[in-house]
Every structure is written in structure tokens, then in C-alpha cells.
Amino acid sequence: DSGVTQTPKHLITATGQRVTLRCSPRSGDLSVYWYQQSLDQGLQFLIQYYNGEERAKGNILERFSAQQFPDLHSELNLSSLELGDSALYFCASSVEAGVGMWDEQFFGPGTRLTVL
Amino acid sequence: AQKITQTQPGMFVQEKEAVTLDCTYDTSDPSYGLFWYKQPSSGEMIFLIYQGSYDQQNATEGRYSLNFQKARKSANLVISASQLGDSAMYFCAMREGLGTNDYKLSFGAGTTVTVRA
To answer: Which regions in chain A score pLDDT beneath 50?
Structure first.
């Protein structure tokens, strides 16, 4: 158990719908990362938040958005869903010890999204 | 361009034998970190081992060791004395810009390892 929690574990929805994925980082971790794992794209970085502020952006679609709340939990919002959005969405967290320090990213169990 | 290349889609290994998983990377950044993660069939991502670009010695962590050849830009994972529980997908990942606040990981396509009894 990494200490990172994600809900829900599974989500089945229809095209055009909107869903929200939730992530609670490990206690003490200030950074939250979202990754998407799909069969055709592999594991891709979507976005990172640090202490409530967006830190880095990757291959995140405009239909997707995220935020990190004062209690450090994060939500990933996916809207106007398409079949191709079906994937395993991971949240990871790290303490972010400082610039120049490496930080192990601890991954949550993932949310499996199926768009029908 | 692909930052991380894992050329072995799948491998079989006999229990108690060693297996080497290949990983090559592409970066012009002098400061980077290389990570290996294990993903069992249950889906979670488990951190295994880390190697920094300036580390002089190859990283080791229990039965896992990293064969880091900087000039060849390779960071192969060696699993010694394979166990049935090692059957999983293994991902090589890289983080560039260790002197910055950019902490994102770039992953390879993964290698599936199946350990045979």
C-alpha cells in the first residue's frame, strides 16, 4: 500500500459525459501528479500540482482539467468523454524535497475508466 | 522522439534465474534520474529502484540492480533469483531537469516478465 488513495476504482460511463476522479496523496506529500495509461499511448504524464498550484503540464487534453485543494487532495475532471478516453488513470504523489533532489513518486491504485 | 525505449515486449525466465530488462534513454540534459517500476496484474505501480545521472555506482535494492552505462545511455534492470511473484510488467522511466522543479516522469512501453516454475 503506497498510501495514495484514488476513488473510484472503476468507472463506466457513456460518451459525452463528464466524470471526476479523486486522489488523496500520502500524508506530507505536497505534489500530486496525474498519469494516463492506455493501450495505444502507454503511460503518459498529464499534469502536476504542487501545494495547490499547477506546476507542470503534459499531454493533457483541453477537455480535461485538474485542481488541488487546500487539504492537498486533487481531482481530475474529464468532460465530453470519448471512447478513446478509456484508460487507467493514476495519481502519484511525492514530498518534493527540493530542487535538485530526486523524489520517488508513489502511485495510487488507479481509476479504470471505461467509456461506452 | 521517444525518450525511453524498452525493446523487449515480453520475456520468460525460469524461477531462480536472473533476468535483464533493457532500457535505453534519450536526453541532452546532463542532470536526470532513471527509475524502474513494477506493475503486477492487479494494476498498481510499485517503485523498484532509482539511478541518478551523477551517481558513480550502479544502484542496487535487494534482488534488483541497475546496470547503468551512461555513455551508451542505457539503464538495464537486473532481477536476480527470479520468483513467481516477479511476474509483472516492468517500466523504465526518466525524469529530466533535476536542477529544476520539473518532476514529471517519461515512461517506456514496458516489458512483460513471466516467471516459470
So the answer is: none
